[in-house]
From TrEMBL:
This is Phosphoribosyltransferase. Pfam families: Pribosyltran. The keyword Glycosyltransferase applies. It comes from Hyphococcus aureus. Residues 8-168 form the Phosphoribosyltransferase domain. One of its GO terms (molecular function) is glycosyltransferase activity. Keywords: Glycosyltransferase, Transferase. The keyword Heme does not apply. SUPFAM superfamilies: PRTase-like.
């Protein structure tokens, strides 16, 4: 489908060219989203920053996202209540998982950003880029964090995602730019 993440980023940048004059800031979800976002930021001549998000894995099914968390002064958490209810996830497990995720986010912040200040999205067009979506939980949390930070507009940009994840994001983001929605959707990597 794509030779690599950079090629996907260039193709995505073509689709996002209309936002070049909208005072954009491009936010990458590391690690996979960074090479894609670099191409978008370059094409739009926009600043590039990171948004650090961690999936909150369900007990016994850590790859199943019961939600996600974004760091910040007041961390933003989204939970998929249907999964939490279906698996009867205890509040204590949720809190422990959030604490562990925030520790990992802080470790990554020090590794990736050192002392670089974050770029505020307030009043600007925030373009949040990842290399693809599966469930969309981490992107939902990123969108919620951008809303909380008072971004003027929020655009989600991904090369590949399942149609239902795109539909869900259209409920919270102002727009979703996606290059392909394969069916059946197996994984971002495939």
């Amino acid at each position: 489908m794509f030779k690599d993440r950079r090629q996907a980023g260039k193709l995505l940048a073509d689709k996002l060219a209309l936002y070049a004059t909208a005072n954009p800031v491009v936010y990458a979800l590391p690690r996979g989203g960074l090479p894609v976002a670099e191409e978008v930021a370059r094409r739009l001549k926009a600043p590039l920053d990171l948004i650090l998000v961690r999936k909150l894995g369900a007990p016994g099914h850590e790859e199943l996202a019961m939600g996600a968390i974004v760091d910040g002064g007041a961390p933003t958490t989204i939970l998929h209540q249907d999964i939490v209810s279906e698996l009867a996830v205890p509040d204590r497990y949720i809190e422990e998982t959030k604490t562990a995720a925030l520790r990992e986010i802080e470790r990554r912040r020090q590794l990736y950003m050192k002392d670089s200040p974050a770029i505020s999205p307030e009043g600007r067009t925030a373009i949040i880029v990842d290399d693809g979506l599966a469930t969309g939980a981490t992107m939902e949390a990123a969108v919620a964090a951008m809303r909380k930070a008072k971004a003027g507009r929020i655009i989600v940009a991904i090369p590949v995602a399942p149609e239902d994840a795109v539909r869900n994001l259209l409920k919270t983001a102002d727009d979703v730019a996606v290059l392909t929605t394969p069916y059946p959707f197996l994984s971002v990597g495939s």
